[in-house]
Write a structure and sequence with these properties.
This protein is of the alpha/beta class. It is about 40% helix and about 20% strand. Helix 1 packs across helix 3 and helix 5 runs parallel beside helix 7.
Length: about 260
């Protein structure tokens, strides 16, 4: 089983920097890094054999490179509204994180090993970064029915863009709701880029279509997640050319747009 263990963070940071330099990024561009982890039933084996932990350890150097706080904002999701925001991953907490914060965490036991829905966790991402707010719709009907309306913003609370990795092994049951959120965020030019990592042999029609449609969504195939995170070119896959171009655009546009 090919996988990865984070043993020399400084060396991994240099590798991340080297990959970015090849993409034309020669100075550090600040960014927040997030990770959405599918906890549907079909993912259970990847949790129990340590491969999801390995994936987290592979993403951490990316966060250490970009984020001033060196943290991964972390969410888990399954079906319906079953999702949760977890304690962030850091250089001091990553060891044993998956076992401690997910598998053995009784507070989220009801979320684990269900189905798959994307919209609730995408909404939570956007709200966490300040890119989406809910407001009362107003007027008599709004008061009667308790209606709210979404307001999408361009800039995150911190003023720096967010890179969010999405680990999932199956099609979502809520394509319309998820698509609407991605579409609204893109139309608002929100500062978030999704790297959708499709695990296994599913067609991932929704994710591939989203990557084709939206300039701030990319799709990466990982048929074997263990081999994916253990490969020599893992950072090239996690930092694709489109993401790097997006980062440069967000950075260069700071004075003009944000």
């Amino acid at each position: 089983m090919t996988t990865f263990r984070l043993e020399k963070p400084e060396e991994e940071l240099r590798r991340v920097g080297f990959v970015l330099e090849k993409q034309g990024i020669h100075e550090r561009i600040p960014a927040q890094v997030g990770l959405n982890i599918d906890v549907s039933g079909s993912m259970a084996g990847l949790f129990n054999n340590g491969i999801v932990q390995a994936a987290l350890e592979r993403v951490l150097p990316v966060a250490l490179y970009f984020d001033d706080d060196g943290r991964i904002d972390t969410w888990v999701f399954s079906n319906g509204d079953r999702m949760a925001s977890l304690t962030p991953v850091t250089a001091s907490t990553y060891q044993g994180y998956i076992q401690r914060e997910i598998i053995d965490n009784q507070h989220i036991a009801s979320i684990l090993w269900g189905g798959t829905a994307y919209a609730p966790v995408i909404r939570s991402n956007l709200m966490t970064y300040g890119l989406l707010e809910e407001h009362n719709a107003g007027g008599l009907l709004g008061l009667i029915f308790g209606q709210t309306r979404d307001e999408f913003g361009e800039e995150t609370r911190s003023g720096v863009p967010a890179i969010n990795y999405f680990l999932t092994d199956g099609m979502n049951a809520d394509p319309d709701a998820a698509w609407e959120l991605l579409s609204e965020a893109e139309h608002a030019e929100s500062q978030i880029y999704y790297v959708m990592v499709g695990i296994g042999h599913d067609d991932f029609t929704f994710l591939r279509r989203a990557a084709e449609e939206f300039p701030n969504v990319g799709f990466v195939s990982a048929e074997d997640l263990g081999k994916f995170v253990g490969s020599e070119d893992a950072y090239e896959k996690l930092l694709p050319a489109e993401l790097c171009s997006w980062l440069k655009h967000e950075h260069d546009g700071d004075d003009d747009h944000h």
